[in-house]
User: What shape does this take?
Amino acid sequence: MRKKVNKLGTSPKGGFDSKRAIKNCLVGGVFVGMLVQVMPALSADKDKKIHFNIPANDLATALFAYSETTGIQLSYPQKMVSGIKSPSVSGDYTPEQALQKLLAGSNIAHQYVDDDAVMLTEVPKQSNTGGTITLNPMTIESTASSESPSLTTPSIAESKAKLNRVPGGTTVIDGERIKEGAVLTVRDALTNAPGVYVGEATAGAAGPSRISIRGSDVNSTVGGPLRGLKILRNGMPFTRANGAFDTQTINLYAIDHIDVYRGASALEYGGSNLGGALNFITPTGYTADPLKIGMTWGTNGHVNPTVSAARVFDNGFDVYGAFSYLDTNTTRENNEQEQFQGHGNIGYRWNEDQETRLYFDVQENDFLAATALTKQQIDTNPRQNQNSFSLGNGIKVYRSDLKHSVKLDNGDRFDVGAYYFNTQFKFDFTGGTNRDLWEDTGFNWRHEINGKLFDLQNRVVWGGFTQWMFSNDTNYATVNRHRGPLLNAEHDRWVNVEGYLEDQLSLTDTFTLVGGVQLNYRNVNYVRYEGYVASAARPSNEADKDFFNANPKLGFTWQATKEAQIYGNLSRSSEPPPLSDLANIFVTPALDSQTASTVEIGTRGQSDWLKWDLAFYQAWLNNEYLIIPLPPFGSGNFTATNANSTTLHSGIELGLETTVPLNVVSSGDQIRFSGNYTWNNFHLDNDQTLGDNRLPAIPEHNARFEAVYQHPSGFYIGPNVQAVSSNWVDFANTLAAKPYALLGARVGWDDKKHWKVFVDGRNLTNEHYASAVAVMGNANGLDAAQFNPGATRQVFGGFEYRY
Assistant: This one.
């Protein structure tokens, strides 16, 4: 089974340093205030030039960005702009000039119906008669350019508008940005999000990863289930009822965009985890190209063909389907990976106000185990992989979601959904063979109500979900490298029930107060039905345990200027412990829920020259699930259990992006600069044995920078750098991974119509480094096989054809 028994232990002691907390918050607040004051204002004067920074994109998204920049309201039928690509608009233009550039070649005309309102119309082909254009009669179907043509799946513009209302750190990642180069792991998908750290267990392959936000999931095995985050897809739960999730099950090819909620910010979806939530939004027949065929080749035998198709029918149906295959030997020896991933969805629009969508997934992942190395082994040869014990592993996934969305009066809406998730694990080793079946099912609902409270604009979101998980875990002996007799087997049953309520009250046109609460009940029942032997660790073959938590939140958003928003919140988060075995129920003292109280302040916005996202937070954690020293103190013995005192997590999350017009090689060429930096300050607080030692597994500093030259023809080229500080392996802080910096570069051409080609180089200086570490108690300063080597030099090239 994919399990590790946790032993009895004690934990460090410490306290709450209120003076330091208040000082940190004041410093963060002053910094935010100073930053806002220096942001220049924009003007929506039709005759005055404005600096535009609208990248090439689908026309609907580009028009939304235009509307945000100018303040001009656009009216048009959504079907008219669906599937149309727009050129980039970067530089100083009047609103009229910029709109003409966006609509160039689209057969769409515009006319002002007011000083700040424009109606778009499609020019009929037979319209040119004697120099006079006659417009056919039409009905305006929508006055919001950000509205998705699908009710069940939000557009990227809708996601940006929604996350802009959240009083906490958020990021929207465009799927097109992800695909500017090769997509290997979830790290490629999240690399542009500040505050997100991804450590990879396998080198350059679609294998397991550790995703951590604000110190979540410090202690898990890198190759094991991910905890500490709520994973959603199209707003529906992807995290299982036991709170775990496998990163391999994310289909990186079928992504339209990703909503990143850092910290306890995803309350409107029931999120209450320390790390936050990731909401993966898939393409639909409305948003995807009718046909897309791609192929990527790379070093180490990397082959990755992809294909997708989409269509919108006149009878209300739309369909989308995608398939990808990956075969690679990775940069490690004896580490071949093979992966099949298929995703599809079918939507039916009953009428203007109701839509139903069925999602389905089929996946198969086959791989050999990648062993951890010592620091010396990585320095000498990071490719080595002595895994003769691995006989082949695999994960099969079958999933189906059904979602129904209803648009109500006054902008209200109601969403309801249900899902079934079947995951089959196969782990064959010379020391034992595991066969695990995890089945997860559940339903969720969400109701958004817009109205007035005390004659003020008010928005209420309430909802919940119920999940059941049934697992059958079996362990066999291995005989002559084949599966032998059954040794033991266990049935696990989890029930997870969550309800949430959030209220957004607009006290003024620019200041909104946000409050809410999330309630969570979780129950687990274990039954060892084969191979049970009574022991002190397992006095009975059956046990169950309950957990209940309430997580309130209070926050605000203040639109200080047209360009700059300030936000802040005080929240509580909670997470039941990772009970993974019958023995976990009987430990003394009993494992308890990890809770945290977090204060956060930040700012986000976009001026005519800079887009920014900055957050500072301080969290006080109780019962954090850690590896801690066993008594007698100083014995050097450690175990995994709750800490019975406060641990401290604080940090800064910064994302910046700007586009500098050049007009050198040709008119409209530019350089896009983007970067993010994360400071992770996680440590014990006056522990009896370890003092204020830093928590391991997550590096203190993590930064990425990229500069890309963009030509109007679609050509782009530029370098990127990923820099990561040293990373402690043990809680005693005696062994650490080396800091590293990786140099990469991309070059490509995308005509935004049919063809895209690219070359993606990574770790061009061939650095030897550890991409992740396995946590231990005390290494006593001695080198140990706790380091997962990162990928050595790799080069990928590929093409994509869109029809």
Observations:
- The longest strand covers residues 482-506.
- The CA atoms of residues 314 and 349 lie 10 Å apart.
- The two ends are 46 Å apart (CA to CA).
